[in-house]
Amino acid sequence: MPSNLSGTVVSARDWCETNYVYSAYVAEFFNTVSNIPCILLALFGLLNSLRQRFEKRFYVLYISNVILSIGSIVYHATWQQLQQQADETPMVWEMLLYIYILYSPDWHYQSTMPTFMFLYSALFGITHWLFHFDIVFKLHYVLLCLLCIPRMYKYYIHTEDIAAKRVAKLYAITLLLASFFWLLDRLLCHKISSWSFNPQGHALWHVLMGFNSYYANIFLTYCRAQQRGWDPKVVYFLGFLPCIKTQKTKAQ
User: Fold this and answer.
1) 4, 79 in Cβ contact below 8 A?
2) Rounded to whole angstroms, how far apart are CA atoms 213 and 92?
3) Burial letters for 199-236: b for 16+ Cβ neighbours within 10 Å, e otherwise?
4) pTM to 2 decimals?
5) Phi/psi of residue 236, nearest 5 degrees
6) Could you give the CA distance from residue 173 to residue 176 in angstroms, rounded to a whole number?
7) 44-83 pLDDT tens trace
8) CA torsion 137→142→144→145, rounded to 10°?
């Protein structure tokens, strides 16, 4: 179990990166700085959403991406138990937001779903702070992710636009690659530690999941704009980063 500079036991989980190598103040350098691309992508998406006047749910979603990345930075830099929960609790809150965005268009009682999500988020945050879940947290998070996949697939098969489908494929590819590197870092650390080069699997997980969240947000924005009749189009910033451009009427 890792320790901070004072020698006290802190986080309940360690990753396959040697602590305090590049700085006496940053426990895991690569696992910390790898969150920066995630923040930049989320801020770029937020600015584009504001400029296009998308629904507030997408503003909240991008802000939650930023909060999650900041929590991860603090956690990997400090190795404190409280900061670990500042990383894990926003992960659950973020997934609940995705579930809301995915399922709310077909939810018959519009006022009950956000109320339930808010109460569930608060309950999880309190219980996780009190009991410091480990295996339960992982299983819970995986379950929330699995709840999103069928709905994403439904949106995919009902989408005709080739560019939007390509964004959905990028979402799936980055999710698979990120999961591979997470498992590599977690299960093969004892072998990786003997290598001359550490691939920094958990840091790659951060970067890939940053792109994964961005692609998910773009695809969901496209689907929602289509539902609202805003004639969405996928355009590319600097030729590679997808964005959504809509054609709203003045009334919209």
Assistant:
1) yes
2) 14
3) ebbbbbbbbbbbbbbbbbbbbbbbbbbbeeebebebee
4) 0.91
5) -125, 130
6) 5
7) 999 999 999 999 999 999 999 999 999 999 999 998 877 8
8) 140
